[in-house]
Amino acid sequence: MKELEERIKKDGRVLGKDVLKVDSFLNHQIDPMLMERMGEEFYEHFKDAGINKILTVESSGIAPAVMTGLKFQVPVVFARKHKSVTLSDDLYSSEVYSFTKKTSNHISIAKKYLSSSDKVLIIDDFLANGQAVNGLNTIIDAAGAQLAGIGIVIEKSFQKGRQMIDKSGTPIYSLARITAFEDGQVVFGKEDE
Fold first, then answer.
1. Looking at residues 148-166, what average pLDDT do you find?
2. Model confidence at 146: pLDDT above 70
């Protein structure tokens, strides 16, 4: 998605060798018009997959997931990282390691929001090592639901997440694929690379 790549070039900041900060439009402050166009892009790519539920992890995946759900006209469910007093014990759960935060989180979804009749599209903000996708897939499997595809806003192709998903055979579509960080700059690849 050319618009997203241009926005990353303009407002993104490379930190170290493997972190991209995009808090001015995705991870802290949100550009709703850009999110809407991302939702349209994910919809166009997966519209024939029979999706009836969008799944993400709180919190940065919620905005693109909601806009995708709006285009599909289906519910969006987000896995919570912390158990709330309003969340019952009737949950699907998994453990997810956060690459940027260097911590593990237990993510949970109430069983009443995911079932064997669901055909799920995962939407997430970043794909690096694939831990969030793995955690969500564990929950999807536990519910007996079907994973129809994975939509990623920003993929860091130089990390192992994409290769892991490609091995599983699950359809994946990334709006921006980063092949490297060189001299503090982002190097983009194509979707088929």
1. 95
2. yes
Among residues 113, 13, 25, 94, which one has the least CA distance to residue 63?
A: 25
**pTM exceeds 0.70, yes or no:** yes
Q: In this predicted structure, what is the pLDDT of residue 18?
A: 87
Lowest mean pLDDT among 12-16, 71-75, 85-89: 85-89
18: number of Cβ within 10 Å: 16
Q: What is the dihedral angle through the alpha carbons of 163, 171, 19, 84, rounded to the nearest 10 degrees? A: -120
Q: What CA–CA distance (Å, rounded) separates 71 from 192?
A: 25
- One-letter amino acid identity for 113? Y
Distance (Å, whole) CA 41 – CA 36:
9
Please report the sign of the dihedral spanned by the C-alpha atoms of residue 31, residue 163, residue 129, residue 131: positive
Beta strands in 7-160 (DSSP E): 13-15, 19-21, 53-57, 76-79, 91-98, 103-110, 119-127, 146-156
Mean of pLDDT values over 65-84: 91
